Amino acid sequence: MELEELIKRGYELLAEGDLDQALDAAREVQKENPDEAEGFIMEAEVMQKLTQWDPSLKMVAKAMEMIGETSRLLNLRGYALMQTGDTENAREDFDAAIEIDDSPVGHRNVVLCLIIEERGTQALDYLVEQIRNNPKEVEYWVLMGDIMKKGGQEEKARGFYEQALTMNPDHAYARKQLEG
């Protein structure tokens, strides 16, 4: 199998939740082309799905040695750091990722970091600001729904999930939240 096909297949397996096969694909990419960062990035993502934060951080570090600090890698590293309790360094990574690429992933991670730090009001304010700045970003509406749901505001949560489905009728997670 060609390298690009193997990478594509590995990410398909990861999306399907077949973590063993995705990990095999990642390691095959590393074996076939040890200078290709994507095999290490894929393994980092598999390790995160397995909640194996230290191995994920090691794979991110290897990828960063090859291609530098990209937004994607900073978000991956930050997420793993956040899960290990190092929210200060995680937040630095998320902010740096946003500086490189002002993407919803980085902003979502900042919100999660603030929640973990028990700064819920600040997290809500930050998320509301992101919704104002980018009201067409479906994931912001879904995240707000999740926050409202966890806060016991079922009707408000429902409204946010419904808004997300209006914007993207195929959003499986939002649909599941409304059905559940």
What does this structure look like?
This protein is mostly helical and 180 residues long. 81% of the residues lie in helices and 0% in strands. It is built from 11 helices and no strands. It has helices at residues 3-16, 19-32, 37-49, 53-67, 71-83, 87-100, 104-116, 120-133, 138-150, 154-167, 172-179. Helix 1 (3-16) packs antiparallel against helix 2 and helix 8 packs antiparallel against helix 9. It starts with a helix and ends with a helix.
The beta-strand count equals 0
Total of domains: 3
Give helix and strand order, one letter per element, not per position: HHHHHHHHHHH
CATH architectural grouping of the largest domain: Alpha Horseshoe
Portion of residues in beta strands equals under 5%
Number of DSSP helices? 11
What level of helicity do the residues show? over 70%
Are there runs of 5+ residues with pLDDT below 50, and where? none
User: How many angstroms does the end-to-end distance come to?
Assistant: 41 Å
The computed structural class is mainly alpha
